[in-house]
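Consider the following assembly input.
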Amino acid sequence: MGSPDPFLAAALASFLAGAVSGLATGFGAGLGTWKQRPAAARIVAFAFAVLGSLLLFVASCRALAHPSSATWSLPLVTLFPCTVRLDPLSAWFTLTLALLALAVSIYSFGYLRPMERTRNLGALGFFYNSLLLGLALVFTAANAFFFLSAWEVMAVSAFCLVVFEHEKAETRDAALVYIVMSHAGTVMLLAAFLLLAAFVGGTDFASFHLLASNLPPAELGAVFLLFFAGFGVKAGIVPLHVWLPDAHPVAPSNVSALMSGIVIKCGIYGMARVFFDFYGPTPLWTGTVVLAVGVVTALVGVLYALQEHDLKRLLAYHSIENIGIIVMGFGAALMFRTLGHLNLAAIAIVGALYHTLNHAIFKGLLFLAAGSVVQSVRTRNMEEMGGLIRRMPGTAFFFLIGAIAISGLPPLNGFVSEWLTYQALLAGFGTTQSLTRLMFPIAGALLALTAALAAACFVKAFGIPFLALPRSEAAANAQEAAPAMQYAMALLATVCVVLGLGATWILPVFDQITQHTVGVAISPSLVAHGIALQAGTAQSGTVSPAGIALVFLALTGTVAFLVRRRLRHARVATGPAWDCGLPGLTSDNEYTATAFSKPLRLIFSAFYRPNREIRPEYDVSPYYPSAIRFESGIEPTFEKHFYGPLRTWIFARARKMRAIQAGSIHAYLAYIFVTLILLLLFGVRQ
Amino acid sequence: MILALLLAVPLSACAACAVSAVSAVSRRRSVLEAVNVTAFAITFLLALAVASQVLRSGAISLWNGFLYADALSALVILLNAAVALVCSVYAVGYLREDQRLGALDGEVGSHGAEAKLRMYYSLTPLLVFSMLLVTLANNLGVMWAAIELTTLASVFLVTFYGKVTSLEAAWKYAMIGGVGLSMALFGTLLTYYAGHKFPGSEGVAGLNWSILVGQAAQLDKPSMRMAFILVLLGYGTKAGLAPMHTWKPDAYSEAPVPSAAILSVAVLNCAIYGLVRFYVLTSRCLGAQYPGSLLLLLGLFSMGIAVPFVLVQRNFRRMLAYSTIDQAGMMVTALGIGGKLAAFALMLHMTFHTVAKSLLFLSAGNIYQCFKTDLFLKLKGGVLKVLPITGAAFCLGTMAIVGLPPFSLFQSEFLMIRAAFGTAHFLVGALFILFGLGVFTGVTLHVSGMLLGTSEEPRAAWHPWRDTPIAILAVILIVIGFWLPADLLELIRRAAEVVSP
Amino acid sequence: MHTLQDPEFGNKMVTLMAALVLVLQIAMVAQRWIVTNIRLFAAQSFLLAAIANTIAYYNHAPHIYVAAVLTLLAKGILVPIVLERLVARIEIRQEIEPIVNIPLSIVISGGLTLVGYVLAEPFYRPEEAPGAATLGHNALAVAISLFLIGFFMMINRRKALTQVLALLCLENGLFLAAISLTYGMPLIVELGVLFDVLVAVMVLGILVYRIRETFESMDVSRMRRLRG
Amino acid sequence: MIPVFLTAVVQLLLLLTVAPLVGGLIKTLKARMQVRRGPGILQPYRDLHKLFRKGMVLPETASWIFSATPYVVFSATAIAGLMIPMISAKAPLGLFGGVLAVVYLLGLGRFFLALAGLDTGSSFGGLGSSREMTIAALAEPAMMLAVFTVAIGANSTSLSEIARVATSTTWHFLAPAQMLAFAALFIVLIAETGRIPVDNPATHLELTMIHEAMILEYSGPYLGLIEWGASIKQLLLMTLLINAFLPFGLRAAWSLGGLLVSLSYLLLKLLVLAVTIVLVETANAKMRFFRVPDLLAMAFTLAALGLVSTFLF
């Protein structure tokens, strides 16, 4: 029992206060008072959220600077201990949470203003703060009961936020699928934790440390898979991802940012905690499974994203892709640890955890930017946007930063974490002589495919909405986002750059984590000459985002200078686009998102099973169609071939069961009679 | 002495309301209401007194052991008295609203509204009296008689509205209940036979639990075997364990909501109480394995049977009934798992379920009266918009009943599953979790369909009589999720010790 | 005169009467007329009272006399009268049509009797002192059979009233078990049980009456509105 | 021993000067092979010179992305060029990045080029971007796998290290793994540099063009920068190919004396590779766009075989 970390306590308290204030204002609005000053709900609740995030940021930085694994218990529930611990792993995730929550809360001030007269923002503030509280507790809880409680608080408040605009049936259905699947995951976790507890004897995380490997093989496998699936539902690994692309977009955009940025990371946190803290070295198959699932997840995610023209759904699918990349890292780390290459395991873990933070940042940024776009264009369909870079230059710029980062292009943060993952996979080839070693380079190649497809997808996601001519009236006179929203985006964009260029200075943070999990501190061998990352040894390859950025700026500067000088004498005119000499360029000439992704749709048609339908409508003669409807879409494989049938099967069975209760009292009596005789005959005479 | 008082108060209230037909003054509705509410308030206070006395000085008994109250009885008494009080307050508002809507001048077998009210206000105290007797009677035979009395007292509460369907429900209730109780009687009788040969067990004392439990080890084994099966099925019928559960949805959906709440919560507690008493005897006589496996069988079956009916349910009051069946199954399963932890979890669960389920029934009553239907098809959502407080309360209750933290039932279920895994009942734990998920799915689908969305109904006003109890229950529900009074917790612990010391 | 004192003789008597009770029960299963059914029930109750008296006489257990008398009054006289009144009041004329046809029902009743004996078997311990146990064994078997057959009748009857009657037969089985196993339960319990039975009959009577009013028939198998 | 900065400048100059030469070389050789006179080897220099002297027209539909792209493409490619060993095994910017960085820097350039294609709003630009990104995405895994095969041999992703290992072991390029990887990488080279049979750099027929379609709207210095960048990309990919697999005459470190020798080696090898490319280009017709994936799938398979073969040999 250590003493409570004051900042963490203060942060939790602040979130709690935010929730309470939201509740108060919400009830006020519900009962009809407060209507006259609706701003109160918004400002108070989210001010608390900002404050809490700041405090949490400080707390996690301190915890990372002076690591300790002291636990202290909150006097919360009479029957159970509610112990909290801010060890380095937790601190890393709370740091992620704090950064993202800070930006999103700032964003919310501007984002929610338009809806403050029409909606009960008090309720929103309540659930928003309780979501943050739940998240903070999930990352810091130190025993099974408290963890699961926090987990469900997080899940349920996320549900309430997703369903906030519950007038739309689409929203309700998405939210229901989400909560049901999420709960299914939770009960898996419950089972896993309690099985573990039954063998270990306690429910404290400290008592689980590295003990899960001592389980008998069958239980070990069962518990491992239960954990993986349970956390996987939340993280959105394929095939448990189906709720994600529906639930994230329908939420208000600030919530979507949190959902995609940090809520799914709870699953990642859980995996990290279980795989590397609870389990010691595991059988090789576990790592293989995780790695394979990761690869599939990444590919499926990006492939679906490519065919998505709903801006927010597209981003949601990219969350799945990035989760896949992270999980690949974990899988590789598991295998390395089993094979005894602890340094490589450490590198893989570092890559995965760093990508967790990076993804939280740039995905949050992208969702916030998308949110401002959607708010001003009032549609999520890219085909109706276009040319926004002129109407909303700030948003466009920040979206571009996010797009570059998520495509893993140097020198931003996405590149760094993907580079680390590549290095780990590459080195993995040497770790074993068995055929499994082939998995690593193949995984690496598929990671490359994923990254390239992601780049293609974000060329679309930035080019279609922001570039060229507006494709709709709304897009033509869109409004730039409110200042608060832009500050938030600027903050995240800055973080993207810092995490990219400053990677070498951030990596030492991971030493404590890897020390605690796989028992080695890796950062000394990850940094070369101060400014360059290196993969383990001096020969094994280096990269320096900062250096690249430096040279890039120098070079570009020189070139630009020279070219400008030339252009001073030459004539620079702006005129209509040449367009191979076709006059009168309108938005109808533009390449649409559908057209852009068409080649890949055809090339991967085996996966997409694209369906198209051309229906001409005739009025007078059968030779001159008055209109032609063209429909084209792709088949949602998992929904159509697994979840749909499962659902129908269950409900059909249930309907059949209703025959039991068909109203005939004779039948009812007969049930009892038969039960009686059977029990008597088998029970009495033994 | 206090025990006698405890019994006397509701009985006299019943008598008062019953005879109030003759005197013109007391015909007035308000008098009946006043009598009921005050009576139940006093009962509750007495129950508190009993509980505190039991906490202070162990088990108390009266009339050389005819009435006997240990921690277990005290707990159940406390819970039931509380439910009775809350429901009596709610009933005032509910029945007034019914009268306003003209629901009381029924089409069939019609007495006037007064007659109906009088019936309600005199039968409810009778019901409460019999429930108290169940928990106070030391003699298993008397306990049986009291449980039978609960059935008889509540039959006419089920036919309250005199609708065709309510008559049907009442008939099924009476018949199945009758059969069940005769099985229970047979079991009681065999128990008496199993113990009647011992010195000092002649006459009344021969069926006194407090005496039997002392010499449980020497009881006649074959007859105890048979007795337990019969009692399990008998009181299981009262508790609504599958496959004896069939009367439950009918009765609950037809009875006026306050009575439904009492039936679903308090009577269930009584039935579980009876089962626990016999379980203790049997497990001490035959070892915990035999009764445990039987209980697990029925408990898991009840939980399983609830799932499909909740999934495709069309009527929210019936849905609540099935949820009660599910909960009964949980408690019985916990009893079957055995051991200190499970027993503790069982008592916790009983306490928490009492609060959550009565909250659910009462708020369901509000919804029913506001929307004039209990079919999901007819009310297409928007409850939260029309009845913000009730809707929120119903939402809370639902979350609690499906076992979501931070609400209390999660804690008891957590303990149950932990006990199951801890005692190597892996399959039991797995099924427990699986069925829980099924019920969660069904309830969530239906309830969110009900609460969310929009409705053209105007926003309803605040009804003090109906909404205050709900608000109070909601607050209690939230509080016990985090904090239990030390005394109550102690009482629960002691009650658990009665089951497995 | 001394033959009357011989417990062996009493034992025979009891067994005989118990057998008669069983026969009556099966006769009820076979009987198509409600009124006759009620009368058979009355006769059965009489026999039970007789059994109670015999046991009281031979085992010198005075309090069973009380139970016997009460049973006689309640089940043998009061209840049949009430039921016949009810029948007269809601003029039922047509005969019972059971769900399982009568020959099969009789066979099933036979099977249930067998079950009864099977279940009573572990209670038969000759090594113990003769008397209650042995006596118990035989009568218990009959009692269980009565119980089960009564139960079966409830399932097998369509009319509300006949179901009530079946329930009462089932109770008779319990009574037989009570007196034959344990010389009756403690008196207070007896009273409670009897009281409950009476109330139950009244309650059910009222229900039957109102069902009749509501449905223009007592056929409970038509009440199938509440489903799912 | 020469300081890194100087080596960087030298290699940069080399890139800038040699790159157009290679382009011209290929053009001329091709013309000769098709019995034409051809523009002459120095034509690219003339083009660049002209382009940088001219003024330019910016489409009014375009945004700042359009103007930023040329710089980004040029610089990114140039930096990538500084990361590969050209005439010495020690790449000037080897510390700043290895083969992964090279691939992703080229990706950065492509990313902006595709955006610029969309920016103008002309359907040709969009068409170009779409096709470019598609092919790149398909080429990526094959390239990575081939690179991995090499990198695994050297157990490093730093190109200097790879080259060093390559020079230290003689005849290692005869290993089947190396050969298969070489073949794969060669196909990727064709695809990445937009040559027949994947793309035709000489055409402006909208049905067939890819790279040209993206830069359709560019003119003047910007076009010059992009063209120059493209030729640098071509040069660096070819250099990568030959120095990773056939590192003859590659000096371990920078030295004035060795400079000329290794430079001549480089030019020689480039000539050979150019001839090969020309042969391929003249022997094949341009593929239908939707046949290209087959080609790249083949490249992927070759690379994978290369990996598997490390078991066998």
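The two ends of chain D are 39 Å apart (CA to CA). Ask yourself how this observation constrains the way the partners meet.
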